[in-house]
Amino acid sequence: MAKELLGKILISGNEEAFCGGIIVETEAYYGRSDPASHAYNGITPRSKIMFGNPGTAYVYFCYGNHHLLNLVTEAIDVPGAVLIRAARPVFGIEIMEARRKTTNIYKLAKGPGNLTKAFGVDGTFNGKDITDIQNSLFVLKAGFLNLCVNKDYTFNGKFKKVVFKISDEEKLLKEIVASSRIGIKQGKEELLRFYFKGSKFVSGKHV
DNA sequence: TGAATGATCACG
DNA sequence: GTGATCATTCAT
């Protein structure tokens, strides 16, 4: 699922602040078998979300500063989630710039903490269904390849019609690379971080 | 390289 | 209740 989510469109917002981007970097987290996972020690008040419905958001507060967005991916009672680490902004960019206080498009949603800030995601999104486009945070099923047709992409959402175009340069970035996960002490040997090779919107070091 | 920052959880 | 830990970011 971490690989599957690469190229999908993450959208958030309401009538005033509507924005979206292409997911370009993810990390997979398992349960009992994964010492880096919040579900490693079983169900706790925080980790219970990971044991719940797939397709829900798992948002938690990290390092006293940042909210991190995960998508629950496994069946009920099976812990597992994918951390959304970076996205390429495609619309609502001015909103993201205001939230991030920078106009460097490569930095707007680079890194999991920056991504949630750009998209306006906080703890109130925890447990929300991200497969329902009626909600204010959701992942569009249309993937990267669907967007790579030779015309603009149109999305008729709840709030407004959005048209955007994927640059030719970015269309070429379809090769997925696996690496070790970032910022963890245990479980480093597992190659559970995935991203589009060569993308300037990806955080951390490229392989 | 390290400070800022606060929720979480194992333990007693 | 306490303290160690933490799926980070930014400036130095």
SSE order and pairing:
Blueprint: H1 2-5, E1 9-13, E2 18-29, E3 57-62, E4 66-72, E5 81-91, H2 93-100, H3 112-119, E6 137-140, H4 144-147, E7 153-156, E8 161-164, H5 168-171, E9 176-179, E10 193-196
Antiparallel strand pairs: 1-2, 1-6, 2-5, 2-10, 3-4, 4-5, 7-8, 9-10
The chain binds a DNA duplex (12 and 12 nucleotides) through strand 3, strand 4 and helix 3.
Structure description:
This protein is α+β, with helices and mostly antiparallel strands and 207 residues long. It has five helices and ten strands, in the order αβββββααβαββαββ. The strands form two sheets. Strands 1, 2, 3, 4, 5, 6, 9 and 10 form an eight-stranded antiparallel sheet that branches. The protein has a two-stranded antiparallel ribbon with strand order 7-8. It is globular, with a radius of gyration of 16 Å. The structure holds a DNA duplex (12 and 12 nucleotides).
In total, the number of strands is 10
Coarse structural class: alpha+beta
Q: Any idea what the radius of gyration is?
A: 16 Å
Query: What sort of overall outline do the alpha carbons produce when their principal axes are compared?
Result: globular
Summarize it.
The protein contains 5 helices and 10 strands; from the N terminus they run αβββββααβαββαββ.
Question: What key phrases describe this protein's structure?
Answer:
207 residues; alpha+beta; two-stranded antiparallel ribbon; 5 helices; 14% helix; DNA-binding
